[in-house]
Amino acid sequence: MLELADETADPVEKEKAAREVDDTLTAIETGLKKMEMARMLSGPYDRQGALLSINAGAGGTESQDWAEMLQRMYMRWAARRGFEVEILDLQPGEEAGIKSVTMLISGEWVYGFVRAEAGVHRLVRISPYDSQARRHTSFASVFVYPDIDETVKVEIDEKELRIDVMRSGGAGGQHVNKTESAVRITHLPTGIAVHCQSERSQHKNRATAMRILRSKLFEIEQQKMEEKMGGLHAQKKKIEWGSQIRSYVLAPYRQVNDHRVEMKVGDVDGVLDGDLDPFMERMLLLLAGDPTAHPDATVE
Question: pTM (2 decimals)?
Answer without folding.
Answer: 0.74
